[in-house]
Amino acid sequence: MKSKAPSILSGDLVMTGSISSEGEVQLDGSVDGDVRAGSLTIGEEASVKGEIVAETIVVRGKVTGSIRARQVQLASTARIEGDIVHSALSVESGAFFDGNCRHSSDPLADKSGSTAKSSSSSSASASSAPSARSTTSTSGSSSSSSSSSASGLEMPSKSSA
């Protein structure tokens, strides 16, 4: 199979409707509709309002809606308001995520809704956790009031050092 060049939707593009591609899509503009792709990169100035389904997703911009992907990476500039169903999830320090997050062995086929609520301006990374609740914040302090357990769940720390 011949390798195809990625589809690039530039920053001046404003689109209403759905996008579907089996290949790689780089989105730098604004989409009001669903996006389905083999691989999707959402640029820092980009925004999507709708459902996103892909094998791999890198989010650097804003998403309002649900994300389903095998591999999800939220960059430090990401702002997510919606649910994420994933096989693997990584969150860079500074990323904002407000929604439900749930691990699934096959997120592309999985549409069920049991998830754990998460509201985060995150300094943590979650990877393949069954579900994660994150309430960490990176606003000005280098100390954290949360600690992570081995299962990926974060719970307030009550120990006094």
UniProtKB/TrEMBL annotation:
Pfam families: Bactofilin. Residues 112-152 have a biased composition (Low complexity). This is Polymer-forming cytoskeletal protein. Belongs to the bactofilin family. InterPro entries: BacA/B (IPR007607). The lineage of its organism: Bacteria, Pseudomonadati, Pseudomonadota, Alphaproteobacteria, Maricaulales. Residues 100-109 have a biased composition (Basic and acidic residues). Residues 100-161 are annotated as: Disordered.
